[in-house]
Specification:
By secondary structure, this protein is of the alpha+beta class. Helix content is 43%, strand content 19%. Strands 9, 10, 11, 12, 13, 14, 15 and 16 form an 8-stranded antiparallel sheet that branches.
Length: 647
C-alpha cells in the first residue's frame, strides 16, 4: 500500500532557533557539518541527569537584573569531546583559558537573545563564566527552577541551556504580534559583532541592575544584615539596585548623613561609605543613624567573619567624603525597613573589596577572566555573590548576625516565603491555603504583628515584621475582602509566640505540599524540605544503613516455608513493598520464590520510580525505614512463628 510521505516535525520556535544557531556555531569551529539536536527537558529529568555530573562550566547571561536570563552548562564530559573537534587548537589551549574560549565560541552571540523585552530591546547584555562541581548542584537547581530547560547534543556531547520562562514568554508574544520580529531576532544573534571575552554592549550612562530577589543577593549581607532586632523593633534590609556609576560623586547630595565602615585586614583597609538623605536635618537624625548603623555593622561583621577573615572593623558618622574617596566604587541601594518607615540608603563599596578582599572565593582562572571584562567591578560582584550563595545555599534564608530574641526559623517566616514568590504564587498561597483553610484575615495578619513593652510604660506597643506592609499585601487578598483587610485588628502575641506561630504555619504549608494539596515553586519546596524534612531524612538514612548492615534477611528468608511465605507476601500491597525494597536489602531477587512473576515485574518498575524519588528527595527516608522495619517483622514472624516478636 502506498504511504503518504512522512512530514518533518516542526520544532517550536525557541527550540528551532537554538538548534540552528548552535549548529552554525559548532560547524564554524569544527570545520564539519554539525546537526545539534535540541529537546525540552523536564525539571525532574534535568535534576536526575545533573545529579550525576561531577564538573563543568557555567555561562550566565544577565541584562537588567541580578537574575540570569539564560544559563549555559557545559559538563566536563562534553568538554573533552568538543575539544577534540575544534580546528587549529594547540594542546596548550586545552586549559581553563582554552575552555573559556571554547564556551564563548559555542555560545557565540546567542546571549543577545536575552536583550528581548516586551517593550523592545535592552542595551546591556553581558555574560559571566563560573565553574561547576557536584557540590553546586543545589545552587544549579535553584537557578534553573524558573527556566524552561533545553537539552542539546552534538558529536555525542550533551550540554544544557535553561532559558528564563518570563523571557521566553516575551519572545513568543512579540513573535505573535510582530511578524517582522523573527527577522530582528535572527539579526540579533547572527549579525552583531562581539569583541574580547565579554558580551556587553556598553552605554555612556551608568550601568544599573535591579535586585530581582533580595534574598539571593547574599553579598549585601557583607554591608548590612538582612535582619536585626533593635530596641524591640524588627528591622530588615532590602537591597534593590546595583549601580556601576561612571561618576559616583554625582550621587552625593546636600543634606545627607554619612557613615564610614572600615574593614581592616593585615596592612589593608577598605572603607565603605553609607549615605542617607535626611533633607538637611543631619543634627536631628545623626545620633539615631549612628546607633542604627553601629548595631547593624556589628551583625555585618558576624557574617563577614564566617565568609572571609579580617582583623577588625569599626564605624562612625563622618563628614561628607571627598569625591575621590568614592571613586572606583559600586553603589548599592537598599531600603532599611524600621518602624513602618523605609529609609533609603546608598552604600559605596570600593572595587578592590571585590577584586582583592573577596577574591579567595574565585578560582585563579576566574580572577584572570574577570580582568578582561569591560566592567570587571560589576561582574566581579555578581561572580562573588554566586560563589557565596553557593556556599550558603542551605542556610542563606536564615538570619545573619548574632543570636536575637526571636527563633531562628521565624527569621524565614511566612513574610519571607511571600517575599521570594511572584505575585501569582503569593496570591495562591494566601488565598488557597491561609484563607481557604479557614483562617480569618485577622489570623493571617497575626503572623506579622507582635506586642512589646517599653520600660516605664504600662500599655503595650505593636511591632511588626519589617517585611510586612499592609498596603502591599492587599494585592494577595481577594478584592471582595479589601475593605475588611483595611480594618483588621492587631495581635496579642509577643515576639517568642510569634516565632511559634510562624513555625506552625510553615510546617502546615510543607505538609499541604507533600500531600499535593498545595502547589508551590521549587524554591519554596527546597527551603521547607531543608528545614523540616532534611534533618529527619539524615536521621533515618542512618537507621536504614543500620538495617542494611545487620543483614538479617538471608537467615530469615531461608527459614520461611514457600507456601506460607507466598500467601503472606502477596498480602502486602505492592506500593508498600516497593518502598521497603528501595535500599536493595533484600532485593526482589532475594524474595523471588515468594513473589509471582507478574508481581515481580511490577515491583521492579515501582522500585525504580521510588529510587529516583528517593534520590531527588521526594520520598522521605522515614517512610522507607518504617516500610523496611515492617517487612522485617513480617519475615521474622514467618520464619519464627513460635516467637511473639523479634529478638
Amino acid at each position: 500500500m502506498k504511504q503518504t510521505p512522512e512530514t518533518k516535525k516542526k520544532l517550536p520556535f525557541i527550540e528551532g532557533f537554538f538548534k540552528q544557531t548552535l549548529s552554525q556555531n559548532l560547524t564554524a569551529i569544527s570545520g564539519e557539518a554539525v546537526r545539534v539536536e535540541v529537546e525540552n527537558l523536564s525539571f525532574e529529568n534535568f535534576q536526575t541527569e545533573t545529579g550525576k555530573l561531577k564538573a563543568g562550566r557555567f555561562l550566565y547571561v544577565y541584562t537588567e537584573t541580578n537574575r540570569a536570563e539564560m544559563i549555559f552548562l557545559l559538563p566536563d564530559t562534553a568538554q573533552l569531546i568538543l575539544f577534540k573537534k575544534i580546528k587549529n587548537l594547540d594542546s596548550g589551549e586545552k586549559d581553563d583559558a582554552g575552555l573559556t574560549k571554547l564556551l564563548n565560541r559555542i555560545v557565540g552571540n546567542l546571549p543577545y537573545l536575552c536583550s528581548v523585552k516586551e517593550n523592545g530591546l535592552v542595551s546591556n547584555v553581558f555574560a559571566l563564566q563560573k565553574p561547576y562541581n557536584s557540590e553546586l548542584n543545589d545552587q544549579l537547581l535553584w537557578d534553573v527552577s524558573e527556566c524552561n530547560i533545553f537539552r542539546c547534543s552534538a558529536f555525542g556531547a550533551v550540554f544544557y541551556l535553561p532559558l528564563n520562562i518570563e523571557l521566553q514568554k516575551s519572545i513568543e508574544k512579540l513573535l505573535q504580534t510582530d511578524p517582522a520580529f523573527k527577522k530582528t531576532l535572527r539579526g540579533l544573534t547572527q549579525n552583531r559583532r562581539v569583541t574580547g571575552e565579554s558580551l556587553i554592549a556598553l552605554q555612556e550612562s551608568d550601568i544599573k541592575l535591579r535586585v530581582k530577589n533580595p534574598f539571593e543577593f547574599i553579598i549585601g549581607s557583607s554591608f548590612l544584615p538582612r535582619e536585626a532586632y533593635l530596641g524591640k523593633k524588627d528591622v530588615s534590609v532590602i537591597f534593590n539596585e546595583i549601580t556601576a556609576a561612571r561618576q559616583p560623586a554625582s550621587q552625593m547630595n546636600e543634606g545627607m548623613i554619612w557613615y564610614r565602615f572600615w574593614i581592616i585586614t593585615g596592612e589593608k583597609e577598605y572603607s565603605v561609605y553609607y549615605s542617607v538623605d535626611v533633607n538637611g536635618q543631619q543634627k536631628k537624625y545623626s545620633q539615631f543613624f549612628n546607633s542604627l548603623f553601629t548595631e547593624m555593622v556589628k551583625r555585618t561583621a558576624s557574617f563577614l567573619r564566617a565568609q572571609s577573615g579580617f582583623d577588625r572593623v569599626k564605624g562612625k558618622i563622618v563628614p561628607t567624603p571627598a569625591e575621590d574617596e568614592i571613586d572606583d566604587t559600586v553603589m548599592l541601594t537598599a531600603n532599611i525597613n524600621w518602624e513602618n518607615r523605609r529609609i533609603k540608603t546608598r552604600i559605596f563599596v570600593p572595587g578592590l573589596f571585590f577584586s582583592d578582599y573577596l577574591s579567595p572565593f574565585l578560582e585563579d582562572w576566574e580572577a584572570e577572566y574577570l580582568k578582561n571584562t569591560e566592567i570587571p567591578i560589576l561582574i566581579s560582584l555578581l561572580s562573588i555573590n554566586a560563589a557565596i550563595f553557593g556556599k550558603n545555599i542551605n542556610t542563606f534564608y536564615r538570619k545573619t548576625g548574632p543570636e536575637s530574641p526571636k527563633g531562628e526559623l521565624y527569621l524565614f517566616g511566612v513574610s519571607k516565603i511571600l517575599a521570594i514568590l511572584d505575585k501569582n504564587n503569593a496570591s495562591r498561597l494566601v488565598q488557597n491555603y491561609f484563607l481557604a483553610g479557614g483562617s480569618s484575615l485577622d489570623e493571617f495578619q497575626s503572623l506579622f504583628l507582635y506586642r512589646y513593652y517599653v520600660e516605664g510604660e504600662e500599655k503595650s506597643k505593636v511591632g511588626r515584621d519589617a517585611l510586612f506592609n499592609r498596603e502591599e499585601y492587599k494585592k494577595y487578598i481577594p478584592k471582595a475582602l479589601h475593605s475588611d483587610w483595611a480594618q483588621c485588628a492587631g495581635t496579642s502575641a509577643n515576639y517568642e509566640e510569634l516565632a511559634v506561630l510562624n513555625v506552625k504555619a510553615l510546617k502546615g504549608i510543607y505538609k499541604a505540599m507533600k500531600e499535593d494539596k498545595l502547589l508551590m515553586p521549587y524554591k519554596v519546596s527546597f527551603i521547607l524540605y531543608n528545614e523540616f524534612q532534611k534533618p529527619l531524612d539524615e536521621k533515618f538514612k542512618g537507621e536504614i544503613n543500620r538495617l542494611v548492615l545487620l543483614n538479617q534477611w538471608p537467615g530469615l528468608i531461608e527459614k520461611i516455608p514457600k507456601k506460607t511465605g507466598q500467601q503472606a507476601v502477596s498480602a502486602i500491597p505492592s506500593s508498600k513493598l516497593a518502598v521497603a525494597l528501595v535500599p536493595g536489602s533484600p532485593t526482589v531477587k532475594d524474595l523471588a520464590h515468594l513473589i509471582s512473576k507478574t508481581k515481580r515485574s511490577e515491583l521492579e518498575e515501582e522500585i525504580k520510580m521510588n529510587t529516583k524519588k528517593y534520590e531527588l528527595g521526594n520520598l522521605p527516608a522515614e517512610k522507607i525505614f518504617l516500610a523496611m522495619k515492617e517487612l522485617l517483622v513480617i519475615l521474622d514472624k514467618l520464619a519464627n512463628p513460635e516467637d511473639d516478636e523479634m529478638i
